Each structure stands twice: as structure tokens, then as C-alpha cells.
Amino acid sequence: MFLQLMLDTMGATGVFGFYAGTNIIVLIMIFLWVPDTKQRTLEELDYIFAVPTRTHMRYQLTKALPYTDQSRINAMMQADKKRADRRAENRSGSGVQFVNNYKDTTSSTIQEKTS
Question: For residue range 44-74, what is the model confidence (pLDDT) as tens digits?
Fold first, then answer.
């Protein structure tokens, strides 16, 4: 009922714009007001939620938001690439290779790489 009224008033493009604008506003509100609780213990959560909202907002605007400048993003991307290269080297350079015997599917062996 509400959507139909919006469609009649604003059209499909207007409704899409309205919901897109709402999502942007909510994204900003979440960034400013909701603290990150990922992989925190219950004791750490007590400390996090004891911080006043204004203090958290100030931290987000002065510390977290400037952290997203281009030089830091490039540094993080380079670190991720190095980490992925090391992971690939560890997988390929172990000297052990898993070989499946197709004739007998119940047995598999591990052989040393010769190359």
C-alpha cells in the first residue's frame, strides 16, 4: 500500500532514489554510532559500550575515517599481495604432493616431488 503510493507520487526512479538515499544516511549513522564488536570478548564489549556516543563519534571522524586515505589503502593492498604470495609459495614449495590412484579409489598416497 505504501509502496504503491510512492510509485504513484514519485515514479520508479524516485522510489529507487529515495531508498538509495535512505541507505546512504543509514550507512553514515551506523559508521558514527555503532561500535565494531567483531572478535571481542565480553569484557572488552563492556568497555566499548561504556564509552559515550559522542566520544565514539569523535574517534570515528578523527581516527578511523582518515585511515582510509589512498596511501594507506595502497599499503594494505601491497601487504595483502605479499601475504598471498607467501601463502602460494608455502603451498607449492612444500616438496610433498598428494597423488590419487585412480584404479583404486579407496587408497591414496603422498609422494615427494621430483622437480
Answer: 999 999 999 999 899 888 888 876 677 777 8
* C-beta of residue 14 within 8 angstroms of C-beta of residue 3: no
Q: Rounded to whole angstroms, how far apart are CA atoms 82 and 72?
A: 15
Helix (H) or strand (E) holding 105: none
What's the pTM value of the predicted model, to 2 decimals?
0.52
The whole-angstrom separation of Cα 33 and Cα 56 is: 7
Any residues with CB less than 8 A from the CB of 55 and at least 6 apart, and which?
Answer: none
Helix (H) or strand (E) holding 114: none
Smallest CA-to-CA distance from 57 within 38, 37, 30 is with 30
Identify any residues that bridge with 112 across adjacent strands, giving them in sequence order.
96
